[in-house]
Amino acid sequence: HAKLDGRNTYRFFTPQMHAKSVRALQLENAMRRALERNEFTLHYQPQICLHTGEIRSVEALLRWNQPELGQISPAEFIPVAEDSGQILQIGEWVLRKAITQLQTWHQEGFQKLKVAVNLSAIQFHQPQLPELIGRILLESEISPNSLELELTEGVAISDPKAATLTMDALRESGIWLSIDDFGTGYSSLSQLKRFQIYKLKIDQSFIRDLDHDSNDRAIVNAIIRMAQALGIQTTAEGVETQAQLDFLRDQGCDEAQGYWFSKPVSAEQISALLASYKPWLPNASPK
Ligand code: C2E
Ligand code: MG
Ligand code: MG
Ligand code: MG
């Protein structure tokens, strides 16, 4: 039927789709000046050890405050930066900023603290990545085993050979590799073992409804059991309630990260938190 065909064709050009591409273009253009104009900052969110209550590491999360467009979420601008290739420059800035900040925290006396940095698959497929990171670590006199890199599942799928070389080089230098958003993508168990993955970060979509969804409880339980069998650490993302925390501790989950403990905050707020922090004890509330 001609009318139906016409309508189906027309659906490719909805006003929403047009608006979306204009927005992406707008972000892409604004991003070209963002680094030199100092529009990016990093916030940091603690990852708490569920065995000792210590803050073991903080995850660096990128923030972009654009003067005309306001605060833009990384969930929106990171994909734009990946499409335009600008993620390479931005990602290098993030690495340098986070590692320099870690040097400051170490100098303030928090020598055991580690920092976790999110890497895009595009950065990961740069053969020079291990060398670049090695140089930044040297500049800041930070040991590789104070750095965690968060990769999403599937990083190794598009170019397994190159990914294997990069993963091996990073691991051999002493850097810790984590799989972010675990459970939402594809990763084979043999890959987890092969790449000597240090940590699985259980995606927050499985944590959100833990209190009333028995399927989520079964999934989280299975992930923790599997990780334990492989000798891999687990971190639950997006922990917001005491009930979620109790379940996770009960299951033997190693770390928690989420609003229950702290939102992502500025570097100065992390310093203040560390200075006054008493390792949280079992069955007590934080702070
Ligand atoms: P992610 O790495 O999985 O980071 C966790 C996200 O969950 C962060 O969102 C964090 O603010 C949020 N979150 C933490 N605790 C809770 C909680 O209890 N409840 C809820 N509802 N959310 C929580 P954010 O900062 O908006 O970042 C979104 C994503 O953007 C990140 O997900 C990461 O994939 C990406 N991203 C952020 N910074 C960078 C970066 O420097 N480089 C790259 N390549 N990606 C980044
Ligand atoms: Mg992450
Ligand atoms: Mg995540
Ligand atoms: Mg994510």
Cofactors and ligands: ligand C2E, magnesium ion
Enumerate how many helices there are, as a single number: 12
- Strand line-up across the major sheet: 1-2-4-5-6-7-8-9
How does the overall form come out from the CA principal axes? globular
In round numbers, the mean pLDDT is 91
* DSSP strand tally: 9
Distance between the termini: 66 Å
Order of secondary-structure elements: HHEEEHHEHHEHEHEHHEHEH
Percent helix: 40-55%
Rg calc: 21 Å
Largest sheet: 8 strands, mixed, barrel
Approximately how much beta-strand content do the residues carry? 15-25%
Helix/sheet category: alpha/beta
Low-confidence stretches: 1-10
What does this structure look like?
- It is a single chain.
- With 287 residues, this protein is α/β, with parallel strands linked by helices.
- Helix content is 48%, strand content 18%.
- The protein has helices at 2-10, 15-34, 74-84, 87-107, 121-124, 129-140, 160-173, 189-194, 204-207, 214-230, 242-251, 267-276, and strands spanning 40-49, 55-66, 70-72, 114-118, 147-152, 176-182, 199-202, 233-236, 255-256.
- Strands 1-2-4-5-6-7-8-9 form an eight-stranded mixed barrel, surrounded by four helices.
- Helix 2 (15-34) crosses helix 3 (74-84) and helix 4 runs parallel beside helix 6.
- One magnesium ion (MG) binds next to loops.
- One magnesium ion binds next to strand 6.
